[in-house]
UniProtKB/TrEMBL annotation:
Protein's recorded name: Tricarboxylate carrier
Cellular component terms (Gene Ontology): mitochondrial inner membrane
Subcellular location: Mitochondrion membrane
Signal peptide location: 1-18
Spans traversing the lipid bilayer: 50-71, 136-158, 178-200
UniProt source species: Oikopleura dioica (Tunicate)
Molecular function terms, GO-annotated: monoatomic ion transmembrane transporter activity
Presence of the UniProt keyword Mitochondrion in the record: yes
Keywords: Amino-acid transport, Membrane, Mitochondrion, Signal, Transmembrane, Transmembrane helix, Transport
GO biological process: amino acid transport; mitochondrial transmembrane transport
Family: Belongs to the sideroflexin family.
Length: 230
């Protein structure tokens, strides 16, 4: 499903209805991913899920329409090359900002209650830490931006290069053009996803001194481990 959302979103003419539909589809998909890959030991209320989902969709639509309106108003004043790049990167910007909002909102409960930190050798749980939760969510947000960049920022560049090299032609060979878009997105996705996960593994360590003072005072070990989620 993931691979069908981004290519179709890039290919379909971006009118108001189409933009709204694809941003809603993408953020619905992301909300499911964030819920499924959260730190499951931290409870998430229905209110948090609904508010997170609503914030993500609202952010995606606001950024998309706001940036589109700005570009439309100022396109004539811009250098043609700059305008072209800005237009091509608009979907990435909207999705990246919305992905961060989606992740932060859907996992806000972890910041409120904290997540478990423990000894990786013995499995002993030291307690719950809001500081660890902040790190976990920040790293997850960054990984979401990397994945969005791979699927929405790089494929348009690859497409542009392929068109200039006359390898594909949307007007003369539309089916080949569509298949190429899917192929570019697939290559980028399957390259960026493992890379993002490798950069930020699910289980992370952090210095004990960076925890809340009252919790750090109880721990003799220099580092603790926490479950970042995916």
């Amino acid at each position: 499903m993931f691979l069908s959302i981004y290519p179709l979103g890039l290919l379909v003419p971006q009118g108001t209805a189409a933009t709204a539909f694809w941003q809603w589809t993408n953020q619905t998909h992301n909300a499911l991913i964030n819920y499924s890959n959260r730190n499951a030991k931290t409870p998430v209320t229905t209110f948090q899920q609904v508010s997170g989902y609503s914030l993500a969709v609202g952010t995606a639509l606001s950024v998309s329409f706001g940036c589109a309106a700005y570009l439309k108003k100022n396109m004539a004043k811009m250098n043609p090359k700059v305008a072209g790049v800005a237009s091509a990167l608009l979907p990435f910007g909207a999705v990246a900002v919305a992905n961060v909002a989606n992740t932060a909102a859907m996992r806000n409960g972890e910041i409120s209650t904290g997540i478990e930190v423990y000894n990786p050798d013995t499995g002993e749980v030291y307690g719950t830490s809001k500081e660890a939760a902040k790190k976990a969510i920040a790293l997850t947000c960054f990984s979401r931006v990397i994945i969005a960049a791979g699927c929405l920022a790089i494929p348009p560049v690859m497409t542009s290069l392929a068109v200039k090299a006359k390898l594909i032609d949307q007007a003369k060979r539309p089916k080949q053009f569509i298949l190429a878009q899917f192929a570019f997105c697939a290559v980028c996705f399957f390259s960026c996803l493992p890379g993002a996960i490798a950069l930020f593994p699910q289980y992370r360590t952090m210095p004990t001194c960076e925890l809340e003072p009252e919790l750090a005072a109880k721990i003799k070990a220099e580092t603790v481990t926490y479950n970042k989620g995916l």
